[in-house]
Amino acid sequence: NIIMVAIFIIGALSDFFDGHLARKYNLVTSFGKFMDPLADKFLVLGSLLAILYRYEQMKGWLFWAVLVVIFREFAVTSIRLVVSSSSGVVIAANWLGKVKRVTQMTSIIVLLLEPVIYHAIEKNGTALPDFFNTYPPATVILCALMTVFTVWSGVNYLAAYWGYLDPEK
Predict the structure, then answer these.
(1) Rounded distance between C-alpha atoms, residue 103 and residue 90, angstroms
(2) Which of 33, 54, 117, 150 is 20 to 30 A removed from 88 (C-alpha atoms)?
(3) Per residue in 48-71, pLDDT tens?
(4) For residue 58, which of 114, 98, 102, 4 has the smallest C-alpha distance?
(5) Residue 104: which of 154, 142, 70 has the closest Cα?
(6) Cut 0.90: pTM above it
(7) Which of 138, 141, 154 is nearest to 69 (CA)?
(8) Which of 52, 46, 80, 73 is nearest to 160 (CA)?
(9) Can you tell me the distance from the alpha carbon of 158 to that of 148, in angstroms, rounded to the nearest whole number?
């Protein structure tokens, strides 16, 4: 898990620095505008699906959080493509989308680290309730926040760009 967290953090940080450098040195390209959000989605969705596969005991509740994330990402990406192709408007990420991304990435890190912490505690002789294996508190709280911000930002994008989705075209 620690290796997975390290790889995930490197991927997340490289995305941050890539965007920062592109803006700082005015290296923003159409290709980058398309690929950067797509790479973000692959990083987050791939990680969430791998976690869902790995942790059998959390599948019941985690499945729904991951499903919400997947649905929102496809919906917003579709809206961005339609708006861009029909009007030429490029939809930039807003503050709500950025908060959503941070909660997603933080949730993934905690999802991977919390079991390691519990294992270390139990190895020292302190027994934890089985409940913690199915509903690790920090993970549950962060995944709930992730789900709320995912839905909120998705609804925000739909409301802001609904006018561009003309069913007659």
Answers:
(1) 24
(2) 150
(3) 999 999 888 888 899 999 999 999
(4) 114
(5) 142
(6) no
(7) 154
(8) 80
(9) 15
